[in-house]
C-alpha cells in the first residue's frame, strides 16, 4: 500500500532529521566548507603573489634594465648595487625570491658565467621563468647590436593573448575551458560518490537496528517487506537531500559573509606589500592589486546571485551541455543511490551483527571506489576512451563515471544506453536485494555465507 | 458446544509450509471461534510461530488456505489482526507515544484516533508519564506493557499473543490477564501460542495441540478433558483402606503415617462416583474426594504417545 510506504519513509525521515547529530553536522559542515574556501583563496592568492628577483649586473651590457622592462605580474626584476656578497645577503634579508648575478666582461655572443642564487631548492618553474627572461633580454641585445633601434625592438615585443576555441560537430565555434569542465565533472562525481556512501551506510545501519531490536516482526505483520525497504531507502534519501540542501544554502551564506572579510584583508595587504617592495611601481604590479580588488568586489553578497546566474550563461557560452548535465546528474544521482541503497539494505538484513557486514560490504563498495579512483585518474583525462565508455555503461560504475564524462559532451546514444542499463540494473538489484532482505530480516543466529544468500533468492513467499 | 456451531473468526485449512530441508507445517487445519480464547499449544519448534506468521501474512503458505470471517486472508485483514511476537521489540530511539501512533497508523488507524486511544491505554496501565520518553529508557516490564498496547491499540478482532506472559512479573501478568479477559468480553478472539501449557490452560476456551509440524488434537478444552479423563478419582482419608469390589479398581494406593492414605480408584462402566463414596463411607473416614482430570500437558503427552510414539522422547524434552 502506498500510504504505508509513505508512513515508513516519513518515520525514517523525521527520526533522523530530529537527531542532535543531524543538526550539529548540518550546522558545522558549512563553516568547515567556508574555512576551506578561505584556505583555498589564501593559497591561490599566495600563488599569484609577485616574486621579486634581485639583479646585480656588473657586465655593463644593460641587461638589468632590459630585465626590469620584462617584469610580469608574477616575476619582477629589481636592479641592485654593491658587492656580490652584499647582494647575496640583502636578497635573503628582503625575503626576495632570488638573485641573478651577471659577471663583469660578459660576452653577448657567448654569455657564460651568469649565476642565479635562490633560497633553498630552486624550483624548475622559477628557474624556467628567469631563464626565459634572460634569453629574451640577450636576444634583444643581439638584435640591437645588429642595428635595430629601441623603437623597433619595442614594436617587436608583442603580447599575444591566447584564447582556446573548440569546434563542435556542426563546426560552430565555442569557447572551451578545460578547467571549468574538469571542475564541474569532479564536483558532480564527488557529490554522488559521497552521497551514496554516507547514506547507503545509514540504510544498512537502519536495517541492522530494526533487526537487532527485534521490531522487525511487528513491522512485517503490518507492512510488506518491499515497502519497508523502499520506505527506508526513500526516507533516508530525503534526509540526505535535506542535508545537502541546507549545506549548500548555509555554506553559500557562510562563504558570502566570511570570505570577503578575509579577502579584503588580503587585498589591502597585497597592495601595501607591492607598493612597499617595488618603489618604481610599474604597470604590472598595479594590475595585480586592481585584479585582487575586483575579485573581492565580486564576493560581495549582493552580487553573488548575479554570479550564479552568470555562471549558467557563461557555461552555455562555453562548450558545456548544461541541461544535459543537470538532467544526467539527477538521473545518475537517484539511480545510483537507489541501486546501491537496495544493496546496502540487503547487507543490513543478511547479517545479525554489524561487525559481520565487512565481508559483504567489500564487493558492494569495490565498484563504487573503482569508478571513483579510475574516474579521476583515467576518465577525466580521456573522457571518450574505452575505460570511460565501459565504466559509464556498467550500472554499478556508471553513476560516477558518466557524470564525469557529461561536462565533456557524451553522444546521445551512449547516454540513452547507459540510462537504460542503469534502470535495468536498478530493477534487477532491487529484486535481488528485496529477496535477500525478505528472508534475512527474520533470520537470526545464522552465519550467512554467499551460498546461503544465493539460496534465499529462490525461497517462496 | 456453543463455539462449534457459530462461524469461526479464523479458519486454517490444510496448510503446508516448507523451509529448505525442513517441513514446518504439514497439513494443519484448525478453527478459532469468535469471541473466545484459543490456545495454540505445542513444544518449541513444533510449528506454532510458522503458523502465526502465515496468519499475520508475514509469510505465505506453500499449500492450503486461511480464511478470516469466511473471506480468504488478504492484506485488508492486517487492520483486523493484532500480533505480539515472542521476540518483543520496539524502535529503541523513538518516543513511546510516537511509536504507538506510528504502529497504529500502519494498521490503518487515523492519527487522531490513535492519540485518543493511546491516552486511554496509558492511563489504564499507569505509564502516562512515560509517553515522551524514548523506549530504551524504559524498564523491560514497561516496554512489554507498551508493546501490549501497540498490539491491541487498533482494536483488532483477532489478537495473537506469542508466549504472552513471558517477561512479565506476576503482578503485570495478572494485569495483562485481566485485560485479555476484558478484550474477549468486548468481542475479540484471542490466540495464545505457548509451549508452557499450564500457564494458559485455565484461560483457554479451546485449544489445538501441535507437535512436529502436525496438529495432534484440537477442540474445546472441556470436551478434550472429558474425552481424556478415565473415570478415576483421588481419595484421601484415614483408616485401613481395603477395596474389594468388582466395580472399583485401585490403580494406586499409598499408606502414610497415622493411618492416613492416598489412593487413585478407577470406576468401571455404569458406576457413579456416588457409588464409590457410599462404599467408602462405611469403611474409612473420607477427607478428600475429587475427580482426577488430566492436565493439557498430560493429555498432550498421552496423545503423542498414541499417535507419534517415535517422537515422544524429543517432544517430552522440548516441553521442559
From TrEMBL, chain A:
It holds the Pfam family ABC2_membrane_3. Gene3D superfamilies: Periplasmic binding protein-like II. It is found in: Cell membrane. This is ABC transporter permease. GO terms for molecular function: ABC-type transporter activity. It is a multi-pass membrane protein. Its main location: membrane. Residues 20-434 form the ABC-2 type transporter transmembrane domain. Keywords: Cell membrane, Membrane, Transmembrane, Transmembrane helix. It comes from Hymenobacter setariae. The chain crosses the membrane at residues 21-40, 180-201, 320-340, 360-380, 387-408, 414-437. PANTHER family: MEMBRANE COMPONENT OF ABC TRANSPORTER YHHJ-RELATED, MULTIDRUG ABC TRANSPORTER PERMEASE YBHS-RELATED. InterPro entries: ABC-2_transporter_component, ABC2_TM. GO terms for cellular component: plasma membrane.
TrEMBL record, chain B:
It comes from the Bacteria. GO terms for molecular function: ATP binding; ATP hydrolysis activity. Residues 10-237 form the ABC transporter domain. SUPFAM superfamilies: P-loop containing nucleoside triphosphate hydrolases. InterPro entries: AAA+_ATPase, ABC_transporter-like_ATP-bd, ABC_transporter-like_CS, ABC_transporter_ATP-binding, DrrA1/2-like_C, P-loop_NTPase. PROSITE patterns: ABC_TRANSPORTER_1 (PS00211), ABC_TRANSPORTER_2 (PS50893). It holds the Pfam family ABC_tran. Keywords: ATP-binding, Nodulation, Nucleotide-binding, Transport. The keyword Transport applies. Belongs to the ABC transporter superfamily. This is ABC transporter ATP-binding protein. It comes from Hymenobacter setariae.
Amino acid at each position: 500500500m502506498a500510504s504505508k510506504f509513505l508512513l515508513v519513509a516519513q518515520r525514517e525521515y523525521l527520526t533522523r532529521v530530529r537527531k542532535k547529530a543531524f543538526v550539529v553536522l548540518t550546522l558545522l559542515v558549512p563553516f568547515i566548507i567556508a574555512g576551506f574556501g578561505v584556505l583555498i583563496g589564501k593559497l591561490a592568492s599566495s600563488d599569484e603573489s609577485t616574486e621579486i628577483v634581485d639583479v646585480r649586473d656588473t657586465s655593463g651590457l644593460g641587461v638589468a634594465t632590459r630585465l626590469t622592462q620584462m617584469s610580469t605580474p608574477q616575476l619582477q626584476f629589481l636592479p641592485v648595487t654593491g658587492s656580490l656578497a652584499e647582494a647575496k645577503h640583502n636578497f635573503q634579508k628582503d625575503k626576495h625570491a632570488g638573485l641573478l648575478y651577471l659577471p663583469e666582461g660578459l660576452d653577448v655572443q657567448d654569455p657564460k658565467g651568469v649565476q642565479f642564487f635562490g633560497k633553498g631548492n630552486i624550483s624548475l618553474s622559477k628557474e624556467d621563468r628567469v631563464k626565459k627572461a634572460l634569453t629574451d633580454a640577450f636576444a634583444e641585445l643581439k638584435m640591437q647590436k645588429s642595428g635595430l633601434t629601441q623603437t623597433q625592438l619595442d614594436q617587436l615585443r608583442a603580447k599575444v593573448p591566447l584564447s582556446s576555441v573548440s569546434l563542435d560537430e556542426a563546426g560552430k565555434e565555442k569557447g572551451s575551458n578545460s578547467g571549468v569542465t574538469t571542475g564541474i565533472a569532479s564536483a558532480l562525481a564527488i557529490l554522488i560518490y559521497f552521497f551514496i556512501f554516507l547514506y547507503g551506510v545509514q540504510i544498512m545501519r537502519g536495517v541492522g537496528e530494526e533487526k537487532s531490536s527485534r521490531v522487525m516482526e511487528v513491522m512485517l505483520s503490518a507492512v510488506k517487506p518491499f515497502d519497508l525497504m523502499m520506505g527506508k531507502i526513500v526516507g533516508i534519501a530525503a534526509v540526505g537531500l535535506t542535508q545537502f540542501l541546507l549545506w549548500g544554502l548555509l555554506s553559500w551564506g557562510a562563504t558570502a559573509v566570511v570570505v570577503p572579510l578575509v579577502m579584503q584583508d588580503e587585498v589591502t595587504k597585497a597592495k601595501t606589500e607591492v607598493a612597499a617592495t617595488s618603489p618604481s611601481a610599474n604597470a604590472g604590479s598595479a594590475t595585480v592589486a586592481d585584479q585582487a580588488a575586483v575579485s573581492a568586489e565580486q564576493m560581495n553578497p549582493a552580487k553573488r546571485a548575479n554570479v550564479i546566474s552568470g555562471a549558467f550563461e557563461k557555461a552555455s557560452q562555453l562548450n558545456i551541455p548544461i541541461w544535459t548535465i543537470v538532467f544526467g546528474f539527477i538521473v545518475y544521482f537517484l539511480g545510483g543511490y537507489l541501486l546501491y541503497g537496495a544493496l546496502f539494505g540487503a547487507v543490513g538484513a543478511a547479517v545479525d551483527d554489524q561487525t559481520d557486514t565487512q565481508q559483504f560490504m567489500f564487493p558492494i563498495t569495490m565498484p563504487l571506489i573503482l569508478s571513483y579512483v579510475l574516474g579521476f585518474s583515467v576518465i577525466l583525462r580521456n573522457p571518450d576512451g574505452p575505460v570511460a565508455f565501459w565504466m559509464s555503461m556498467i550500472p554499478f560504475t556508471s553513476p560516477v563515471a558518466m557524470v564525469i564524462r557529461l561536462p565533456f559532451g557524451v553522444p546521445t546514444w551512449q547516454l540513452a544506453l547507459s540510462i537504460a542499463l542503469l534502470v535495468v540494473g536498478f530493477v534487477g538489484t532491487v529484486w535481488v536485494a528485496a529477496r535477500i532482505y525478505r528472508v534475512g530480516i527474520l533470520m537470526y543466529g545464522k552465519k550467512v555465507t554467499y551460498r546461503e544468500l544465493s539460496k534465499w533468492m529462490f525461497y517462496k513467499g | 458446544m456453543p463455539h462449534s456451531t457459530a462461524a469461526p473468526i479464523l479458519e486454517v485449512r490444510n496448510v503446508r509450509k516448507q523451509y529448505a530441508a525442513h517441513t514446518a507445517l504439514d497439513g494443519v487445519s484448525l478453527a478459532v471461534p469468535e469471541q473466545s480464547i484459543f490456545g495454540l499449544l505445542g513444544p518449541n519448534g513444533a510449528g506454532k510461530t510458522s503458523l502465526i506468521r502465515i496468519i499475520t501474512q508475514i509469510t505465505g503458505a506453500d499449500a492450503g488456505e486461511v480464511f478470516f470471517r469466511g473471506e480468504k486472508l488478504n492484506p485488508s485483514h492486517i487492520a483486523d489482526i493484532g500480533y505480539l511476537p515472542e521476540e518483543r521489540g520496539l524502535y529503541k530511539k523513538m518516543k513511546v507515544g510516537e511509536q504507538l501512533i506510528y504502529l497504529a497508523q500502519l494498521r490503518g488507524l487515523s492519527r487522531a484516533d490513535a492519540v485518543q486511544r493511546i491516552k486511554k491505554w496509558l492511563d489504564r496501565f499507569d505509564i502516562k508519564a512515560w509517553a515522551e520518553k524514548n523506549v530504551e529508557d524504559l524498564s523491560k516490564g514497561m516496554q512489554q506493557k507498551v508493546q501490549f498496547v501497540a498490539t491491541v491499540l487498533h482494536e483488532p478482532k483477532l489478537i495473537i499473543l506469542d508466549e504472552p506472559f513471558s517477561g512479565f512479573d506476576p503482578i503485570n501478568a495478572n494485569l495483562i490477564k485481566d485485560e485479555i479477559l476484558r478484550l474477549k468480553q468486548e468481542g475479540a478472539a484471542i490466540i495464545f501460542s505457548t509451549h508452557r501449557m499450564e500457564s494458559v490452560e485455565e484461560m483457554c476456551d479451546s485449544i489445538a495441540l501441535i507437535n512436529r509440524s502436525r496438529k495432534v488434537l484440537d477442540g474445546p478444552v472441556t470436551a478434550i478433558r472429558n474425552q481424556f479423563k478415565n473415570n478415576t478419582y483421588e481419595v484421601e482419608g484415614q483408616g485401613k483402606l481395603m477395596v474389594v469390589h468388582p466395580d472399583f479398581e485401585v490403580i494406586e494406593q499409598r499408606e502414610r503415617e497415622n493411618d492416613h492414605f492416598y489412593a487413585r480408584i478407577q470406576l468401571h462402566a455404569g458406576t457413579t462416583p456416588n457409588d464409590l463414596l457410599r462404599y467408602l463411607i462405611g469403611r474409612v473416614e473420607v477427607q478428600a474426594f475429587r475427580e482426577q482430570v488430566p492436565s493439557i500437558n498430560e493429555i498432550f503427552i498421552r496423545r503423542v504417545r498414541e499417535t507419534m510414539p517415535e517422537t515422544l522422547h524429543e517432544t517430552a524434552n522440548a516441553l521442559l
